[in-house]
From TrEMBL:
Recorded topology in the membrane: Multi-pass membrane protein
Domain ABC transmembrane type-1 residue range list: 136-424
Organism the protein comes from: Candidimonas nitroreducens
GO CC list: plasma membrane
Pfam families: ABC_membrane (PF00664), ABC_tran (PF00005)
Keywords: ATP-binding, Cell membrane, Membrane, Nucleotide-binding, Transmembrane, Transmembrane helix, Transport
Domain of life, per lineage: Bacteria
Record protein name field: ABC transporter
Transmembrane helix as UniProt keyword: yes
Membrane-traversing stretches: 135-157, 177-195, 249-274, 280-299, 360-387, 393-410
SUPFAM superfamilies (alphabetical): ABC transporter transmembrane region, P-loop containing nucleoside triphosphate hydrolases
Domain ABC transporter span(s) in chain numbering: 458-691
Length: 715
């Protein structure tokens, strides 16, 4: 394991090496090595604090050594500890433990990377089950249409043997017989056309609905997952999975799977007809089959892995687009157009390289199958001519055989080409089922409790929260009375937003419990619980649409009078009326047509409309000017009235009206009280307030404390 910090927390490269007999350490390049023989009483433990990890080697008497590292090395540290523990306990070299990747991100954010399998396509059956009747009809039509298409070659035998060859020998043509055979050919062709049209339409209809159900189920499942899942995912990757991957599966089901089924039926039924006509000639026909089967097995795995890489690289391209198009203002502000074009070109080139490798395999496979089928046709010609010369079969039999052989090999060649589409669909299905198989870290209760009337009393008991391998909150005890306003203050990274997220149940506490009106919030249905919570964020998110639609987002059936009343209370009515279409004005992508203060007031109106019992204000006035802040503060005064309110603010002056202030430091509550009381104590809050009054950055009470914002950690 590499260590990247020294004991004074300066960046420095070091190395830890674990063998079967001892642990060795080198703290810097060129420094002497230290060694400790492994012993039963020796332990290797890790701790984390504020983004810094600590690894300690101890025996039963004292600490022998310790090393520091950043969280980037956490995975290596956990693997090292796992190997050490198994060696110390005499369980071998812990290869199995080392093979398991350590989870260093948020719980539940990572997905196990297993190779895609064609069997993933069979899992689509649960989406096909509601349409089993239509599928049965489609399969029956496929069977009948395949049988109808096999009739024409069979009728060529009597045409050759009973009409054309006798005519060459001087016997007049029997036109009644000709009309009979030609009529049979026409009827079989019409029947094949009608049956093929019917089965194509029905199966395409079914596949489109399976694809639609798959997209809906995947998106619905995504909406049920906690924020922890999205913290480790790229937007472009998820869009690609729901969009292009489901489209590819739908195309496979509607076209390629149908072709595959038809080809299989044609091959089986043609083989049966050929064997009934002449077994020896039929066996000559099947000579290329083992070689083609071996080729398919050889190529299938390479194509499957290749197409999964193609999917992942394509998701990278989508990620670049999802980053730069919404962030185009920042790109242009910093004149980084060239850099983003270069980033896109690099992703595109990786996509090109992966596709080239797949195409190299496919370009060799497809012509080889064609060559084998052509060779098989030559074998049939040679063997057939030899049998005709020995009068073992007639020319009509050979002609019919060649007609069947042509269809047989055409279908065989087509079926081998479907291998490519099958592996593409299998890779896509695997990526979609990776989402569907993920279990939310914020589950619905098995036996839900329903609150008839929410009062808004919140109680936190020994609440702790671990994000990945870092403890963000610990030992939080707090009681909030109904209608009380609580202000959360503290250094950046002290856990304020994390605590608000836990109360919203965006995440579940790792330790302890949170209750609403005496009921653990984990016992309440999630949607029912959150309908009682209104959230106003520092950066309000508005959806593309009208102002009225955005205000009514939490209550879609709200009347125009209710929307206007909420806007008036949020001090937004006046500026809305100044817009060209008033409440029907479009706000643009993410509300870019409005100023920051206007977006914030629409966000407040959105929270007012649902009339929540609990209100979360997360830096609601921190990014606006003083005049706009005054307008927003008036709107907030209307919003918080009579509601249990939890407000987070860096501007401590905005929290003077709070009933109590809760001061957080290093994930713990260090002070609780009113503004005047806390100033009189001259403690942590007074230090923060005085530093802010002087316009200075507050000093952290711990030199190791990393002031990164907890929002960045969680999101």
């Amino acid at each position: 394991m590499e260590t990247d910090l020294d004991t004074q927390l300066r960046f420095a490269r070091g190395l830890l090496v674990l063998t079967q007999r001892r642990l060795l350490a080198c703290t810097a390049p060129g420094a002497p090595w230290q060694a400790w023989p492994l012993a039963p009483d020796m332990t290797l433990r890790h701790y984390d604090h504020a983004g810094v990890g600590s690894l300690e080697l101890q025996d039963s008497h004292a600490r022998l050594a310790h090393w520091r590292y950043t969280m980037a090395q956490q995975g290596a540290a956990l693997r090292l500890i796992g190997r050490h523990d198994q060696l110390r306990e005499g369980r071998g070299n812990a290869d199995e433990a080392a093979a398991r990747p350590a989870q260093t991100g948020p719980a539940g954010a990572s997905e196990p990377h297993a190779p895609p399998s064609t069997w993933a396509l069979l899992r689509l059956w649960r989406f096909a089950l509601p349409y089993r009747r239509q599928l049965l009809i489609g399969f029956t039509l496929t069977l009948l249409s395949t049988a109808a298409s096999l009739v024409p070659p069979y009728l060529t035998m009597p045409l050759m043997d009973k009409v054309l060859i006798p005519f060459q020998n001087g016997i007049p043509i029997d036109y009644e017989l000709v009309r009979l055979y030609l009529g049979g050919l026409l009827l079989s062709s019409l029947a094949a056309w009608l049956l093929t049209w019917g089965r194509t339409y029905i199966l395409a209809w079914v596949s489109e609905r399976i694809g639609a159900d798959l997209r809906t189920s995947t998106y619905q499942h995504l909406q049920r997952l906690s924020l922890q899942y999205f913290g480790g995912k790229r937007t472009g990757d998820l869009i690609a999975r729901i969009g292009s991957e489901s489209d590819r599966i739908c195309l496979f089901l509607s076209l390629h799977l149908l072709d595959f089924a038809t080809d299989m039926l044609m091959i089986v039924m043609t083989s049966a007809v050929l064997l009934s006509i002449d077994p020896w000639l039929a066996l000559a026909t099947l000579i290329p089959l083992p070689f083609i089967g071996w080729l398919i097995q050889l190529v299938r795995g390479r194509l499957r892995y290749g197409f999964e890489k193609v999917d992942r690289v394509w998701a990278e391209i989508t990620n670049v687009l999802a980053d730069t198009i919404p962030g185009v203002r920042v790109v242009k502000a910093f004149a980084q157009e060239r850099r983003e074009v270069l980033r896109f070109r690099e992703a595109n080139n990786r996509n090109l390289a992966v596709n080239d490798r797949v195409n190299a395999v496919w370009s060799l496979f497809s012509p080889t199958v064609t060559l084998l089928t052509e060779a098989g046709l030559l074998v049939v010609w040679a063997f057939g001519i030899w049998m005709v010369s020995r009068q073992q079969i007639t020319v009509g039999v050979l002609t019919a055989f060649l007609a069947y052989i042509s269809r047989f090999y055409t279908r065989l060649d087509s079926m081998s080409r479907i291998v490519s589409f099958t592996q593409q669909a299998a890779a896509g299905a695997k990526r979609i089922f990776d989402i569907l198989d993920h279990v939310s870290s914020v589950p619905e209760p098995r036996q839900p409790v329903h609150l008839q009337q929410v009062q808004g009393r919140i109680a936190l008991r020994q609440v702790g929260f671990r994000y990945g391998n870092r403890m963000v909150l610990q030992g939080i005890d707090l009681d909030i009375a109904p209608g009380e306003m609580i202000g959360l203050v503290g250094h950046s990274g002290s856990g304020k937003s994390t605590l608000a997220n836990l109360i919203c149940r965006f995440y579940d506490a790792s330790q302890g419990s949170i209750s609403l009106d005496g009921v653990d919030i984990r016992s309440l249905p999630i949607a029912e619980y959150r309908r009682n919570i209104g959230v106003v964020l520092q950066e309000p998110f508005l959806f593309f649409g009208t102002i009225a639609d955005n205000i009514a987002y939490g209550k879609p059936d709200a009347s125009r009078a209710e929307i206007v009343a909420a806007a008036r209370a949020a001090h937004a009515h006046e500026f809305i009326l100044r817009l060209p279409q008033g409440y029907d004005s479009l706000v643009g992508e993410r509300g870019q047509a409005l100023s920051g203060g206007e977006r914030q007031r629409i966000s407040i109106a959105r929270a007012l409309l649902i009339d929540p019992r609990i209100l979360i204000l997360d830096e609601a006035t921190s990014s606006v000017d003083t005049a706009t802040e005054n307008e927003i503060q008036k709107a907030l005064d209307n919003l918080v009235r009579g509601r249990t309110t939890i407000s987070i603010a860096h501007r401590l002056s905005t929290l003077r009206q709070a009933d109590r202030l809760v001061v957080l430091d290093r994930g713990r509550i260090v002070e609780v009280g009113r503004h005047d009381q806390l100033l009189a104590r001259n403690g942590a809050y007074a230090s923060l307030y005085q530093a802010q009054a002087r316009g200075e950055p507050p000093e952290s009470s711990n030199e190791d404390w990393d002031e990164e914002d907890e929002d960045a950690e969680i999101a």
